[in-house]
Amino acid sequence: MLCDILGVERPSFFMEIIAYTSAGCFYCDQLKELFKRFDIEYTAIQVKKDITLEDFRQKYPAAESYPHVVIDGDVIGGLTQTAKYLMDQGLVYSKKHGQRS
Questions:
Q1: Which fold has domain 15-90?
Q2: For the segment 16-30, what is each residue's pLDDT rounded down to a tens digit?
Q3: In the 8-state DSSP scheme, what is residue 75?
Q4: Quick one: pLDDT band at residue 96, thresholds 50, 70, 90?
């Protein structure tokens, strides 16, 4: 990461987001749309294409479904958990709750 190379602290708005996805997964597509809608940068890793299923299972044995999101090294979970986490961080908002400030 650039912040590590420069030896400076990472700003709170800059997160390393990794989304493990599966081809043809509706919830994975919805997650990607959420990131796109709110201009959130992330790395998508497609299981069985970019990483083997065995390697994914070894790295995240508790993962039960896709998408599987990891932010700054912490497992967040699937689509719902990720949306809630991003709302709590003020990075996304729902129409029901109004725009972010």
A1: Glutaredoxin (3.40.30)
A2: 999 999 999 999 999
A3: E
A4: low
Rounded distance between C-alpha atoms, residue 62 and residue 74, angstroms: 13
Look up residue 34 and give its two tokens: 């959420």
**The amino acid at 83:** A
For the record, the structure tokens of 79 come out as: 């689509």
Look up the pTM and report it. 0.81
Q: What are phi and psi of 44, to 5 degrees?
A: -95, 130
Whether the CB-CB separation of 38 and 15 falls below 8 Å is answered with: no
- Give the separation between CA 10 and CA 99, rounded to whole angstroms: 26
Token digits of residue 89: 């961080």
Taking the C-alpha atoms of residue 33 and residue 73, their distance in angstroms, rounded to an integer, is: 22
Q: Find, among 11, 2, 21, 32, the residue nearest to 89 by Cα.
A: 11
